[in-house]
Amino acid sequence: MSWLVTGGAGYIGAHVVRAFAEQGIDAIVLDDLSSGRKGFVSGATPFVQGSILDGELLENAFERYGVQGVVHLAGFKYAGVSVTRPLHTYQQNVTGTATLLAAMERAGVDRIVFSSSAAVYGTPDVDLVTEATPKHPESPYGESKLIGEWLLADQAKATGLRHTSLRYFNVVGSGTPDIFDASPHNLFPLVFDALLDGRTPRIYGTDYPTPDGTCVRDYIHVADLAAAHVVAAKRLDAGEPIEPVYNLGSGDGVSVGEIMQAVAAGTGIAFEPERAERRAGDPARIVASGELAARDLDWRMRHSLADMVSSAWSARQAAATP
Questions:
Q1: Does Ligase count among this protein's keywords (predicted)?
Q2: For a FRET experiment, which of 26, 64, 66, 247 has its CA 20 to 30 Å from that of 266?
Q3: 204 has catalytic annotation
Q4: The model's pTM
Q5: E strands of 196-319, at which residues?
């Protein structure tokens, strides 16, 4: 018996697969490689190349590998870009999730851990977001993730599906030198690429209602995130009580300006970031409580901001070395 990890060749997904392996749990990767990298998948891990929009492919994978559960990470994950590509975002994240759930039902696969997002909250009017905070997504991406949660809840009522959704925002760092964040839209790779190219990193938006004018977010280490996914899967396997949603939050916020300072310190490259206009779909502040996840999923911040920067920088430098 094994778990299928959709998007398992991506930055986050590959860490989740490694975390499963560390716990002695078999994992199967399904990825269309639109943003994932085959090199992130260990040669010992079965790999299925294809899309979650392909129901027949999913059913074949379930049967061939004796899949008992799914960690669903595949999707289009860029909030800013989703504003200009809403239909693509909905196809990948909503139609894709519905197709996956239908294939699971036909194959008798009855448990799923869903990678959701703090983007479902939009710009909350509270200092600390909890799972009960009203949801007001401000981008097609955030909307699509909230619809994904609804799909799981409705399918649970109809079929008894066991599920949980993990909400988080900025994932950084690296748990192993051979996996790095290669996204062209995420903050750390944008900053690192600029530094490696001899360019000055850029901050988008310095007039937000925050202490230094830059966006404030939860930044969590990818290895901590991966570990929480595995604990959630194990609870579902054991039939233990589990909440429908959890925030994987730090309980504290870090601004983009503070990130820039930490990067300068961690890389040893002094720079003063350029300042640019805001990007569409970026709320001013999202900081979430992780208390519920700490209770049930052994969630905690095991890595400092300095750890996040140093591990991410080491992995990115390794990737740049011939």
A1: no
A2: 247
A3: no
A4: 0.94
A5: 202-204, 216-217, 219-221, 245-247, 254-255, 274-276
